[in-house]
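re the bet — no i am not wrong, look at it urself. input seq straight from the record:
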Amino acid sequence: MHAMKRLVAILFTLAVLALPATAQLRLGPKAGIASSSLHFDSKLLSSERRMGWTAGVQLELRLPIVGLGIDGSVMFTHRNDALRGDSRTYHRNYIEIPLHLRYTLSIVGLNKVVAPFAFTGPNFGLLCHESSDITWDNRASNLSWDAGFGVELLGHLQVAASYSLGVTKAFKQVGIDRNGESITGRDHCWTLTAAYLF
């Protein structure tokens, strides 16, 4: 967790240092759909993949280094989950703050029309609401690691797909004990988003 905090501090420091130069700062709305599943530390439980959604705002800083940039978002994310073979529901709402280092490929003659990019970085989630028919003990915060790719169209519209791998445990004590220990789990999520940056 300390390493993640250091990484965030480094990213923000780079952003501040780059601002006086020829950096380009852009902001815009972002929304998408998310397909999440739960990964438990026991084979006694498994989950079904369910659809949720996410919406918020994205800030992007293009550094004065060819292709490199930093983006950060503040997103409201609704996750739907269910245990396999169980009709009970499990809903959680998060405020997520992903911070990504990205590389955009510049194609001569086409970069104003289409520009592919790839990104990776930490995603900090803060639980703000939960609703469940199952006995869960949700962590107030969790950390995931994102990796993805996308394409920017006409210099403004960004369409991206990413996979978020849970680094820290998101929940525990799901009502089934194994040798007296609570079963814990992490979030894994595929997300498809669109952002329009001005």
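see?? The first helix runs from residue 2 to 18. told u. also The chain has one domain: 2-196. so pay up
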